[in-house]
Amino acid sequence: MCTRRAAGFTLIEATLSMVIVSIAVAGVMLLFDRAAQSSADTLVQKQAYAVAAALLAETEAAPFTYCDPTDPRVATASGAFLGPGGCAATVEALGPEPGQTRYSAATPFNNVNDYNGFAMGPGVRDVTGAVVGGAALSNYTATVTTAPIAFGGIPAADANGAPQVLLVTVTVDVNNVQAVLQGIRTRYAPNSP
Questions:
Q1: Which terminus has fewer CB within 10 Å in the chain: N or C?
Q2: pLDDT tens figures, 129-149
């Protein structure tokens, strides 16, 4: 008489199958976890670059002249010096003039080089000082530097040593993610060579 084996799995086969399926599911879950983390990192990077781009655009949109834009001779000065043919009161230099801040309505940054050394954060603020983005942008910090640079055949400084071209660098940091954007800004003045 021939005995027939019952159809189905033995206890050992069932246990082994469960172990193999568990290992496969754990591997797939690890891939999903890494994909979700990468997706979040990408969002943080996009936000950091958006903050950097906005601050770079704001900086580059400011005037870049021999004299402070409030100087009475800003439109006629032929060089960055005080006196006849130059500025009446304030020659622009890297960094803000005393009392100037990005957030002041009375004495705001009014020239590209006023942004040199600017630092913001933690948290992103608009030009009035109001917090932007709430908790989503509360860990962000930003810095701006401006430095003279030769560019496209234009020397970094003129004969009097006044910068003619500035490299504007905006750096935004958040949670070990850094976004760095740079732009070139040339000086314009009615009488510049």
A1: N
A2: 888 877 778 889 999 999 999
Which residues have CB under 8 Å from 150's CB, separation 6+?
A: 156, 165
Distance CA 168, CA 139 (A): 23
Q: Taking Cα atoms as reference points, which of 154, 158, 164 lies closest to residue 188?
A: 164
Beta bridge partners of 67: 91
pTM over 0.90: no
Assigned token pair, 102 = 């990005």
Give the Cα separation of 110 and 122 in Å (integer). 24
Q: Rounded to an integer, what distance in angstroms lies between the CA atom of residue 184 and that of residue 125?
A: 24
- Distance of alpha carbon 110 from alpha carbon 139, whole angstroms: 27
Residue 157's nearest CA partner among 86, 37, 96, 66 is 66
Contact 138, 121 (CB under 8 A): no
41 phi/psi in degrees, rounded to 5: -60, -40
- The pair of structure tokens assigned to 111 is 């020239």
pLDDT of residue 160: 77
The DSSP result for 125-161, as a single string, is: E-TTS-EESGGGGTT-EEEEEEEE--BTTB-SB-TTS
Domain residue spans of the chain? 11-62+92-186
Quick one: tokens of 57? 């655009």
- Give the count of alpha carbons within 13 A of 123, CB side only: 10
Could you identify the residue written with the tokens 């009615």?
190
